[in-house]
Amino acid sequence: MTYDLAIGDRSYSSWSLRGWLLFEKFGLPVKCHTGILYTDDFQRLLAEFQPARLVPAMRTPEGEVIGDTLAIAETLAERHPDAGIWPDDPAARAMARYMCAEMHSGFTALRSDCAMNLRLSYVDSQPRAEVLDDLARIEAIWARARDRFGAGGPWLFGRYTAADAFFAPVATRIATYNLPVSPDAMAYVTAHLADPAFRRWRAMGAAEKLVQQSYAKPYAERPWPGLPPLAASLADGPSENDACPYSGKPVTDFLSLDGRIWGFCNAFCRDKTLADPEAWPAFMAMTGR
Q1: Where in the numbering of this chain does the GST N-terminal domain appear (predicted)?
Q2: Is residue 142 part of a domain?
Q3: Does residue 210 lie in a domain region?
Q4: Half-sphere exposure in the Cβ direction for 135 (13 Å, CA)
Q5: Peptide bond between residue 245 and the one before it cis (omega within 30 degrees of 0)
Q6: Are residues 61 and 118 both part of a single domain?
Q7: Above pLDDT 90, what percent of the chain?
Q8: What is the CATH number of the domain that holds 114?
Q9: Is 53 in the same domain as 112?
Q10: Residue 240 CB: number of other CB atoms within 10 A?
Q11: pLDDT for the residue numbered 107
Q12: Which domain holds residue 260?
């Protein structure tokens, strides 16, 4: 029972990241369909997911299309009650829904000034007072959730829930624009940056090699503040493996890690691994590292 999910550019589409995390983090099978933002290709994608007008948009196995991330979250929670998409405790669940709704409709200064960009990080983005006000509110509601329900894990409600998926792009904005937050808030941001699912999403964005110039800002750049990836490089074959660790198909594209050559069935599989080898359990299992 596989779902279909329409998404935009992984490096830039914050709502697509939210939608994808609702599948990836809760073990729900999904096939992604991509379209390049601001191009005819994006309109082609949306035509396949009518009547949705934005991404993400989900098609159920029965063929029903649901747009809007809140609607997707609620539909998935209803269809998969044991997945743990919302907190178990009723008070925590109500708070999580409230936080997602506020994220969905609020924080307009942060969202307009600091668009998600997973390709870059800046030394100083000179945030306006309105952005700082949004950050103060975000820190307050994060702290409220953590103080009441956050025991037992690094996430807002202890274990990962839809609320964390909704705030993942906020964490990336803080990382990209080097926004000033408290040590507690930065610890929550760091948990997102280190999360293997998020790292896989960012690695796939790097593999897409799509650069939207309108997202660039005129600030000095710094290295991405997440965990540094293992040093892999492009290579020529042959490889130690004959089958791609993801598809099982014959290998055609290669990388080198620790002096050993590994093969993949296409350039995208190779490049997403090249971007962050440790984020891919199937690859790491094959290497025995």
Answers
A1: 12-78
A2: yes
A3: no
A4: 23
A5: no
A6: no
A7: 99
A8: 1.20.1050.10
A9: no
A10: 12
A11: 98
A12: 232-287
| 3 state DSSP class of 250 | strand
Q: Looking at 40, 57, 79, which one is the last position of a domain? A: 79
37-74 residue pLDDT tens: 999 999 999 999 999 999 999 999 999 999 999 999 99
Phi, psi (degrees; rounded to nearest 5) at 253: -130, 145
Judge if 25 and 71 occupy the same domain. Answer: yes
Q: Count Cβ atoms below 10 Å from residue 216 Cβ, excluding itself.
A: 12
Eight-class DSSP state of 125: -
Nearest to 167 by CA among 205, 138, 203, 127: 138
Q: Which residue in the block uniquely carries the two structure tokens 């750049």?
A: 221
Tokens coding 256: 């080198």
CB 114 within 8 A of CB 210: no
What does the block give as tokens for 92? 């925590």
| β-bridge mates for residue 211, sequence order | none
Alpha-carbon distance of 255 to 237, in angstroms, equals: 8
Query: How far is the C-alpha of 108 from the C-alpha of 94, rounded, in Å?
Result: 23
pTM greater than 0.85 (yes/no):
yes
User: For the chain, how many structural domains are there in total?
Assistant: 3
pLDDT in tens, 231-244: 999 999 999 999 99
Question: DSSP string of 207-225?
Answer: HHT---GGG--SS-B---S
Is 185 contained in some domain? yes
What is the Cα–Cα distance from 14 to 43, expressed in whole angstroms? 18
**Which contiguous run of DSSP H or E holds residue 34?**
strand 30-34
Listing DSSP states for 151-193 in one string gives TTSSBTBBB--HHHHHHHHHHHHHHHHT----HHHHHHHHHHH
Answer yes or no: are the C-beta atoms of 164 and 17 closer than 8 Å: no
Q: Cα dihedral angle (23, 223, 12, 205), rounded to 10 degrees?
A: -60
**How do strand 3-7 and strand 57-59 relate by DSSP bridges?**
antiparallel
Answer whether residue 227 is part of any domain. Answer: no
